[in-house]
Specification:
Number of domains: 2
Number of helices: 5
CATH class of the largest domain: Alpha Beta
Distance between the termini: 100 Å
Helix content: 55-70%
CATH architecture of the largest domain: 2-Layer Sandwich
Strand order of the largest sheet: 1-2-3
CATH topology of the largest domain: GMP Synthetase, Chain A, domain 3
Number of strands: 3
Strand content: 15-25%
C-alpha cells in the first residue's frame, strides 16, 4: 500500500514538473492560457488515477469473454472451406456457360450450320474445384443452309440412278472448318475438340 502511495506521489510530482517546464518554454501569449488549462487537466488526471482504478476494480464487475472452444473454431473453418469450394464451383459453372455461349455464336456464323449445342469439360485439380484447363469440347452440329442460302433457298440438282458412297461423311469439310476456327480462336488443341453431326 505504501509503495503504491509512493508511486502515486512521484507520478504527480513528475507531471507538475513537466507542466512547469513546458510553461517556461512558451512565450507569454494567449497560448499560455490554453497550455495551463491542458496541464491542469493532466495534473487532475494524475491525482484521480488511483481513485479511478479502485472504482474499476471493486465496483464495476469485469465480465470475461469465454474462450472459444476448438469445436467452434473448427466449425468456422469447415464452413469457410465449404463456402470457398461452393464459390469456386459456381464460378467454374458460370465460366463454362459463358464459354459455351461464345462458341455457339461463333459456330452459328459458319456457313452450313443451322444449330449447335456446345458441351465443355474442364480439368479440375484433385479434391478441389480449381480449374486447370479445358479437357474437351464437344460440338453437336445440326447442318443446314449456308448464310447465303438462308435468304433464298435454291433447288439442288437431283441425279437419278447414281448412288452415293454410304461410308463417306458428307460433312467432313464442315467438321474440319469448325474445328480449325475453334482451335485458332480459343487456342484449344485439335485433339480436344470433337465435332458431331446431329441428323434431323
Amino acid at each position: 500500500m505504501i509503495a503504491m502511495f509512493t508511486g502515486w506521489v512521484k507520478y504527480i510530482i513528475f507531471v507538475v514538473l513537466f507542466a512547469s517546464f513546458l510553461e517556461l518554454l512558451l512565450p507569454s501569449s494567449s497560448m499560455q492560457r490554453f497550455v495551463r488549462v491542458i496541464m491542469g487537466l493532466f495534473i487532475m488526471l494524475a491525482i484521480m488515477n488511483p481513485i479511478i482504478s479502485i472504482i474499476q476494480n471493486h465496483l464495476i464487475p469485469t465480465n470475461q469473454v469465454p474462450a472459444l472452444s476448438t469445436n467452434f473454431g473448427n466449425s468456422i473453418m469447415n464452413d469457410s472451406m465449404n463456402m470457398s469450394n461452393e464459390r469456386e464451383r459456381l464460378s467454374l459453372e458460370l465460366y463454362k456457360k459463358e464459354l459455351a455461349q461464345q462458341m455457339k455464336i461463333l459456330v452459328m456464323a459458319i456457313d452450313g450450320v443451322a444449330d449447335v449445342h456446345v458441351n465443355i469439360e474442364i480439368n479440375t485439380v484433385k479434391n478441389s474445384s480449381i480449374a486447370s484447363g479445358i479437357e474437351s469440347v464437344i460440338l453437336y452440329i445440326k447442318p443446314g443452309l449456308s448464310a447465303k442460302d438462308r435468304k433464298v433457298a435454291a433447288v439442288s440438282k437431283i441425279t437419278i440412278g447414281e448412288q452415293k458412297d454410304k461410308t463417306e461423311d458428307p460433312h467432313i469439310d464442315l467438321k474440319k472448318r469448325i474445328s480449325e476456327i475453334v482451335t485458332e480462336l480459343y487456342q484449344i488443341p485439335k485433339e480436344k475438340i470433337e465435332v458431331r453431326i446431329i441428323h434431323p
